[in-house]
Amino acid sequence: MPTCLPTVLRRCHTCASDRFRANGKFRVNANHKLLDAWLLVLCTSCGETAKLTVLERTHVRSVRPELLDRMHDNDPDLAAELLQDPVVRRRNRVALDWDNAWRLDTGGSDHLAPGWGLPSSGGAESLGKIDVSVRFAARIPVRPTRLIAEGCGLSRAEVERLIREGSLVSAVRLTGKLSDDFTFTLKR
Ligand SMILES: [Zn+2]
User: Fold this and answer.
1) 26: buried, middle or exposed (CB in 10 Å: 19+, 13-18, 0-12)?
2) What is the C-alpha to C-alpha distance for residues 72 and 68, in angstroms, rounded to an integer?
3) Same domain, yes or no, for 183 and 138?
4) For 59-83, how does the pLDDT look when each residue is reduced to its tens digit (9 = 90+)?
5) How far is the CA of 71 from the centre of ligand 1 (A)?
6) Measured in angstroms, how far is the CA atom of residue 68 from the centroid of ligand 1?
7) Is 45 within 8 Å of 19 (Cβ atoms)?
8) Cβ neighbour number for residue 149 with a 10 Å cutoff
9) Where does the pLDDT of residue 121 fall: very low under 50, low under 70, confident under 90, or very high at 90 and above?
């Protein structure tokens, strides 16, 4: 789940930094019946403001009133939604950096037996297998091996070994990055 807005990667024309942050502010211009609207982003280095186009000479009647209200209210949730919209990113030629802007919520550690991930000892064999589903609260590209390691208290190397051994299986490819919900099964 996101913990804050991601960094917007875009070249600053003032200081050559390439990192901007949205603060949830919008600017809307009306020219007769045509609207332009931008999401404002600030250079993290010099504070210069840049504008990401949301609406471009769009007839007011084709804009949902709710969207306009949210822009006038400088709704930070709308900023988050727009940044996650690939159409908005493509149009503005920006990418996102989600580092330090999300966290894994495992709902506590009760789901894990003590020593899970260690060589089986005591009653660990009775665990058999666990099925885990991972839900993305936002489309944040993350390595599933990193999520599984963190969620199961394993090292990345252990996770990669379990995948190679066939003890960790999924219908999706666990190598590379994912940003969609997936499930996996961990067998003992
Ligand atoms: Zn700058």
Assistant:
1) buried
2) 6
3) yes
4) 999 999 999 999 999 999 999 999 9
5) 25
6) 29
7) yes
8) 20
9) very low
Residue 184 token pair: 């996996």
Which residues neighbour ligand 1 (ion) by CB within 5 Å? 12, 14-15, 17, 43, 45-46, 48
* Closest by CA position to 144, among listed 179, 100, 188, 185: 179
Confidence of residue 122 (pLDDT cuts 50, 70, 90): very low
* Domain containing residue 156: 124-187
Give residue 123's pLDDT.
Answer: 44
**Pair 89, 135 in one domain:** no
User: pLDDT for 123-147, tens place per residue?
Assistant: 444 568 889 999 999 999 999 999 9
Tell me: do 128 and 90 sit in the same domain. no
